[in-house]
């Protein structure tokens, strides 16, 4: 996946009722680290806030079922979308400091991996086979 035009990498560890969002800039600085409800309005507010900084790439760990709302909202708002497969996420998590499995850490792993290793990402457009 080409990410040369991306300004913000938004990693979402998706859950049934809420997600954890971690957004990074080009340098890996955290610009957002917060829970986000599984709610269209809150997702729109979060993405719109980040779009003030430029092009946003929204990355989820599950593209179907519970991850479909964030992806649909992101696409509707003109953000790019991708998904980080479970195997790549587990390997990346082993490389980062800290061993606890939390939603917050998982969101950071997703965003950081997307920023530093974009080749691990998969497109998840509606016509893609993963969807």
From TrEMBL:
PANTHER family from the UniProt entry: PUTATIVE TRANSPOSASE FOR IS117-RELATED, TRANSPOSASE FOR INSERTION SEQUENCE ELEMENT IS1111A
GO terms (BP aspect): DNA transposition
Protein name in the entry: Transposase
Organism: Bifidobacterium thermophilum
GO-annotated molecular function: DNA binding; transposase activity
InterPro entries hit by this protein: Transp_IS110-like_N, Transpos_IS110
Transposase IS110-like N-terminal domain ranges (all copies): 10-131
């Amino acid at each position: 996946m080409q990410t040369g035009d991306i300004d913000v990498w938004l990693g979402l560890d998706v859950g049934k009722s809420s997600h954890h969002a971690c957004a990074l800039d080009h340098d890996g600085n955290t610009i957002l680290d917060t829970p986000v409800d599984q709610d269209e309005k809150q997702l729109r507010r979060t993405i719109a806030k980040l779009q003030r900084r430029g092009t946003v790439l929204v990355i989820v760990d599950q593209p179907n079922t519970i991850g479909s709302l964030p992806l649909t909202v992101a696409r509707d708002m003109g953000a790019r979308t991708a998904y980080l497969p479970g195997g790549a996420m587990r390997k990346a998590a082993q490389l980062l400091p800290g061993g606890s499995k939390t939603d917050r850490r998982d969101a950071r792993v997703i965003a950081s991996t997307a920023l530093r290793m974009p080749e691990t990402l998969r497109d998840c457009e509606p016509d893609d086979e993963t969807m």
